[in-house]
């Protein structure tokens, strides 16, 4: 059905900017010989005519980029229909992340055919660039010097037989200008209709010298871009309070705090040794005799043990009286004791578009010595990004965060108001109006709470990434029709993240290991929860850090506004500017290849290419001294010292050969093989064979088979082990709960909150793949073409980590990874999610390309479509286990979201002075996520709607050398479709899917180009 729709859209000229593929849309002014058009294209070391290639190669020109208003590599990647839908862009990885995604600050990556960013090879002028300094695996495409780019070649096929590791999903090769002359200045703006989230870019390119006439060329390009921030609160579609549709937020930490009962603290820990206003959480000895059995909802027996918020009590102002507030949905989340609790829409505080400014530069010098060319190039970038998400939630406990709201001269007015409101509904705590601190009632006892500290500020990581790359190369003839190509390069990427706003020193010892270090540092009587004098103490506070602010009453969790003294105190204990982590990735490489004809046979010359590569990779990751046991704790800072690596290196030595055999003028066969020797992994050999059969000029069949591999990243091998808490409330143990949902009233179905263990594995091996493709290209006349290619990728020994849900629902396959501290039959306490070669992945699809053009009204009318139809996407966890259900159109919290069909299409009319273009972006729908009781809600949609955008652009060539382009993106101001993406285990997500949709809404673009 989607194919018919796509074809109808194209036929009716209601389509989206796709890019040139396989053949030009218009005939050349004069016929060129095939040899004149032969160049070295991505995926082969043998020169060939790209319009007759057996490879599924997509070539994107500068004209294509201008027509689409694409001004950054990230924009280009997001437009490609063959790119997957992972958390690979600045919107998808902008919220709270965990595990491996912690290192994606400021990162935009490619993900061809949904195989993952580490399985897409990114090249610059045919050679590798450095991986991102924090991840050590995926390449940040925003380091590419876009102003210097002449074209982009996208090989939609495996290429390990040519390039080695990573080229499983495909290859993206950014190719720069080589003989540019003159001066070009560009300016670009993209402003939303709302006037927010602006995008600006300015660039300049200068070149001098003609290689053919003068024998040399030098050029330089520089570009600066700015992406403004966009917050969830700025878009109405970001709304976590849609209970009728099955979405509500599972956090009771709110800007007006929710009161809780907790067990008393030990001596020297916090201020609740004598109990709290709501008593203790336990009726056992741990409760210290403070348990209140009568703390029940009026007219019933259900205890209010899920929190009480004064706004939600009868007669209260309502949870929606503060921005982002909502009543906690105790039915949806199966927490009956939270009837009078409030929740906070964390998605409104998160960023939808990360703010980032990027500087890139590029320089190249080329000298022609006869038929030989010698070149040197240097490129680099500096990017500054800020990752921002919801404010910290502070939840009282009796150990690592012993905070409570006391009764004193600072707090009396607020305390009395809170007490009276709760006592009027829950007389078990005492009588309303009681002002006597005695044994009658709980008046005067501190109030334990969960609190979202708005005035503490959004959590903010600021990341600076610098890249540098230098390369030299030479190429030319060596006789008998053979050419040589030799080169060497050095590249590095360095990234460092520091804490911005929203983080504060805790002020207490949070672990037993920290107490031991504290004692060694000279802090007397250090205990978990005890005051850590190494943390700063604010003026007027009774104890260090933010714990001291709460327990002194300086910071008021029951007020939307804080006093000037409280704001000054927050500044005094702020951790702003503290180093979070940093990393550095370096790659040094050298290569030599030759190519040329061997001998003539029936269909032409048999040609060959052969070469050798050497590469040394080095990666190091630094933790933070602030996270060491010798430093005071910073609350909720995602330090990553467990994964700190002293620089690790590995050497790669490779040799490869390629041959082209023209068996007939209609039939040619290519073969290639590459042998790689990796430090620590040994030797791997990967062949490739491809064929092209062209019985007529207008019809070509093509196919290929190859094997590939991907070695583990340094992080996947050497990372330390990290234990992370699970604050969520939405998971159950499938081995004990047959109801399939969290429900504390059903035996075995109570919510579980196991910790998770993540980290590296020294025994990891490489992923291996087998892939094949077959297709047909149809060119019935000039300006018209169509191609369809089937592809299949089978990956085994998959490197990855199980998700929490994957492990919970497949416990029988991984019994050693599910830990029950109390023994068999007791609740799950730990899930081992460390990386491993855990299984297999099978992906198949069709890629469709349509092009057409005709003369019309004194110009040329062209239309085109590029689409991808996913046919298979399945995984299994072990070689002996069965494949799971189809993942096509199935929501997942992490990884690639496989859409059944997606396409880009366009229709353009152009003449010498004007160009008008209308384009369409289509992304298919998928099954919606469901929270514990979402499916019971009346407006729950089991399927997320498809997503369609239309863009328009008009280009005016005012005079020679001066061009203006004006455009409208998202003409109809289409919002992302509603999708339940909220994850209570991380607090990330909301009501839309950033892996599929664009949050900016309608925007207006304007660009100019001046050539001298």
Parts with pLDDT < 50 across at least 5 consecutive residues: 1-35
Main sheet summary: 22 strands, antiparallel, barrel
Q: Specify the structural class.
A: mainly beta
Distance between the termini: 50 Å
Mean pLDDT: 89
Q: Into which percentage range does the β-strand content fall?
A: 35-45%
Total beta strand runs? 42
Number of helices: 11
Helix content: under 10%
Radius of gyration, whole Å: 31 Å
* Bulk shape: elongated
Give an overview of the whole structure.
The protein is mainly beta and 1012 residues long. Helix content is 8%, strand content 38%. It has 11 helices and 42 strands. The strands form 8 sheets. It has a 22-stranded antiparallel β-barrel. Strand 20 (579-601) and strand 21 form a beta hairpin. The longest helix is centred in the middle third of the chain and has 12 residues, at 412-423. It is elongated, with a radius of gyration of 31 Å. Mean pLDDT is 89; it is low at 1-35.
What order do the helices and strands come in, and which of them pair?
Blueprint: H1 2-11, H2 34-37, E1 57-61, H3 62-68, H4 73-79, E2 120-124, E3 127-128, E4 149-155, H5 160-163, E5 170-176, E6 182-192, E7 199-208, E8 216-227, E9 230-231, E10 258-260, E11 325-327, E12 342-344, E13 351-353, E14 356-369, E15 372-391, E16 393-395, H6 412-423, E17 448-452, E18 458-479, E19 482-499, H7 512-520, H8 545-552, H9 564-572, E20 579-601, E21 604-622, E22 645-664, E23 667-678, E24 682-696, E25 699-710, H10 714-718, E26 722-724, E27 755-758, E28 767-781, E29 784-796, E30 799-800, H11 804-808, E31 818-819, E32 830-832, E33 836-837, E34 840-856, E35 859-876, E36 901-910, E37 914-923, E38 926-927, E39 943-944, E40 947-959, E41 962-969, E42 1003-1011
Parallel strand pairs: 2-5, 27-32
Antiparallel strand pairs: 1-4, 2-3, 4-5, 6-7, 6-42, 7-8, 8-14, 9-13, 10-17, 11-12, 14-15, 15-18, 16-17, 18-19, 19-20, 20-21, 21-22, 22-23, 23-24, 24-25, 25-28, 26-27, 28-29, 29-34, 30-33, 31-32, 34-35, 35-36, 36-37, 37-40, 38-39, 40-41, 41-42
């Amino acid at each position: 059905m989607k194919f018919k729709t796509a074809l109808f859209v194209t036929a009716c000229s209601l389509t989206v900017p796709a890019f040139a593929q396989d053949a030009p849309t218009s005939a050349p002014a004069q016929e060129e010989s095939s040899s004149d058009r032969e160049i070295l294209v991505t995926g082969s070391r043998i020169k060939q005519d790209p319009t007759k290639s057996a490879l599924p190669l997509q070539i994107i020109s500068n004209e294509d980029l201008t027509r689409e208003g694409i001004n950054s590599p990230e924009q280009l990647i997001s437009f490609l229909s063959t790119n997957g839908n992972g958390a690979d862009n600045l919107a998808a990885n902008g919220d709270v992340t965990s595990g491996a995604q912690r290192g994606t600050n400021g990162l935009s990556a490619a993900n061809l055919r949904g195989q993952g960013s580490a399985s897409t090879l990114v090249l610059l002028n045919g050679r590798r660039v450095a991986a991102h300094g924090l991840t050590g695996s995926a390449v940040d495409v925003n380091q590419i010097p876009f102003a210097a780019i002449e074209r982009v070649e996208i090989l939609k096929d495996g290429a390990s037989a040519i390039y080695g590791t990573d080229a499983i999903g495909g290859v993206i090769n950014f190719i720069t200008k080589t003989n540019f002359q003159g001066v070009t200045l560009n300016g670009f703006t993209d402003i939303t209709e709302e006037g927010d989230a602006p995008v600006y870019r300015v660039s300049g390119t200068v070149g001098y010298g003609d290689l053919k006439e003068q024998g040399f060329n030098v050029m330089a390009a520089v570009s600066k871009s700015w992406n403004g921030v966009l917050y969830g609160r700025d878009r109405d579609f970001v709304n976590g309070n849609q209970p009728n549709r099955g979405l509500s937020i599972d956090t009771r930490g709110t800007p007006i705090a929710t009161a809780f009962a907790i067990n008393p603290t030990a001596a020297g820990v916090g201020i609740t040794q004598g109990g709290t206003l709501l008593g203790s959480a336990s009726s056992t000895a741990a409760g210290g005799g403070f348990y209140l059995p009568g703390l029940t909802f009026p007219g019933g027996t259900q205890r209010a043990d899920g929190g009480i918020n004064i706004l939600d009590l009868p007669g209260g102002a309502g949870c929606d009286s503060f921005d982002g507030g909502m009543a906690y949905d105790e039915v949806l989340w199966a927490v009956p004791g939270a009837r009078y609790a409030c929740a906070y829409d964390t998605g409104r505080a998160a960023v939808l578009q990360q703010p980032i400014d990027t500087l890139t530069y590029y320089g190249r010098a080329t000298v022609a010595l006869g038929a030989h060319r010698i070149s040197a190039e240097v490129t680099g970038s500096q990017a500054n990004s800020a990752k921002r998400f919801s404010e910290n939630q502070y939840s009282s406990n009796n150990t690592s965060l012993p905070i409570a709201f006391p009764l004193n001269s600072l707090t009396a007015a607020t305390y009395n108001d809170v007490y009276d409101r709760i006592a009027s509904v829950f007389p078990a705590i005492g009588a309303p109006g009681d002002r006597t601190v005695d044994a009658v009632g709980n008046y005067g006892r501190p109030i334990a709470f969960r609190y979202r500290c708005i005035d503490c500020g959004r959590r903010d990581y600021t990341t600076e990434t610098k890249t540098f790359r230098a390369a030299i190369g030479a190429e030319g003839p060596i006789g008998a029709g053979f050419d040589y190509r030799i080169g060497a390069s050095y590249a590095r990427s360095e990234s460092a993240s520091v804490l911005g706003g929203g983080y504060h020193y805790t002020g207490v010892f949070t672990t037993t290991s920290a107490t031991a270090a504290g004692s060694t540092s000279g802090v007397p009587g250090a205990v978990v929860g005890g005051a850590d004098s190494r943390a700063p103490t604010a003026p007027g506070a009774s104890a260090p850090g933010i714990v001291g602010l709460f327990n002194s009453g300086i910071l008021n969790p029951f007020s939307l506004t804080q006093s000037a003294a409280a704001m000054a105190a927050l500044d005094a204990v702020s951790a702003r500017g503290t180093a979070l982590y940093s990393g550095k990735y370096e790659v040094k490489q050298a290569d030599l290849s030759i190519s040329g004809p061997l001998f003539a046979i029936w269909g032409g010359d048999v040609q060959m290419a052969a070469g050798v590569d050497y590469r040394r990779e080095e990666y190091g990751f630094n933790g933070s001294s602030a996270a060491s046991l010798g430093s005071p704790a910073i609350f909720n800072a995602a330090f990553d010292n467990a994964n700190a690596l002293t620089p690790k290196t590995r050497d790669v030595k490779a040799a490869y050969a390629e041959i082209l055999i023209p068996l007939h003028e209609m039939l040619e066969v290519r073969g290639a093989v590459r042998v790689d020797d990796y430090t620590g992994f040994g030797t791997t050999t990967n062949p490739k064979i491809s064929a092209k059969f062209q019985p007529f000029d207008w019809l070509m069949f093509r196919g290929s088979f190859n094997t590939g591999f991907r070695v583990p990243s340094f992080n996947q091998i050497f990372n330390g082990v990290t234990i992370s808490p699970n604050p969520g409330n939405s998971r159950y143990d499938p081995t004990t709960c047959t109801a399939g949902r969290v429900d504390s009233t059903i035996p075995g179905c109570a919510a579980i909150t196991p910790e998770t263990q993540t980290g590296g594995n020294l025994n990891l091996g490489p992923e291996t793949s087998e892939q094949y493709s077959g297709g047909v290209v149809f060119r019935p006349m000039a300006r018209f073409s169509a191609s369809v290619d089937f592809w299949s990728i089978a990956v085994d020994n998959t490197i990855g980590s199980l998700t929490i849900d994957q492990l919970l629902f497949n416990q029988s396959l991984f019994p050693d990874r599910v830990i029950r501290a109390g023994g068999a039959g007791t609740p799950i306490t730990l899930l081992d999610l460390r990386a491993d070669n855990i299984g297999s992945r099978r992906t198949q699809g069709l890629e469709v390309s349509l092009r057409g053009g005709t003369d019309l009204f004194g110009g040329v009318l062209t239309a085109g479509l590029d689409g991808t139809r996913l046919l298979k996407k399945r995984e299994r966890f072990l070689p002996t286990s069965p494949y799971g259900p189809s993942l096509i159109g199935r929501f997942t919290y992490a990884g690639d979201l496989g859409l059944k069909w997606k396409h880009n299409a366009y229709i353009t009319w152009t003449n010498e002075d004007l160009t008008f273009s209308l384009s369409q972006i289509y992304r298919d729908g998928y099954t919606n996520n469901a929270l514990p009781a979402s499916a019971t809600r009346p407006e729950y949609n089991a399927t997320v709607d498809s997503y369609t955008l239309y863009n328009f652009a008009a280009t005016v060539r005012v005079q020679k050398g001066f061009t203006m382009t004006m455009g409208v993106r998202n003409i109809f101001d289409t919002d992302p479709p509603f999708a339940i993406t909220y994850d209570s285990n991380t607090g990330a997500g909301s009501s839309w899917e950033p892996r599929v949709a664009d949050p900016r809404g309608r925007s207006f673009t304007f660009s100019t180009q001046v050539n001298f």
